[in-house]
Amino acid sequence: MHGAADDEAPEDLSHAGSVVDKAIEYMLEQKIDPISAASALLGGSLGLLARSMDDRGIAGVLRQALKSVESGELRQLPSLPKG
User: Fold this and answer.
1) CB neighbours of 14 closer than 8 A, spacing ≥ 6?
2) Extents of the domains making up the chain
């Protein structure tokens, strides 16, 4: 992805994460169910990946996400803010 090595996070990743966090906060404030918000974000993310990576690259991203789920890493994230 745009000049970053496989193990190196892009410089703008933190900024992108902050924007997504704000979008999530907004959706919860709008009383959008968390599963609906997550499904919309995932669908949008997959669409963006499909426009910017080949299928092998997308599969690699998804495998890394699965590893995070299986290792319990995602359970260490802070809980959702009250919407």
Assistant:
1) none
2) 25-76
